[in-house]
Amino acid sequence: HDWSDPYFGLRVSPIVIGDGAWVGAKAVVCPGVNIEKLAILAAGSVATKSIPSAEIHVGNPAIYSRNRRIRDSSV
Prior knowledge:
This protein is mainly beta. It has strands at residues 16-17, 22-23, 28-29, 34-35, 40-41, 46-47, 55-58, 63-67. The chain is 0% helix and 28% strand.
């Protein structure tokens, strides 16, 4: 909701979760946030801004922790 609106109007914006992205248990993704491909939002974290591809974000509010490294599956 828009807390500055005297009528407390509902704010509606899409949430997009990209291919291979992961949102941990009990995490919160706010309206308008994109979790880009291969990104991770850690369990219990709160995403108030979009998370770039292959980054790991943690906490409340979620902040950058490190890049996600994908192992070579042919090993």
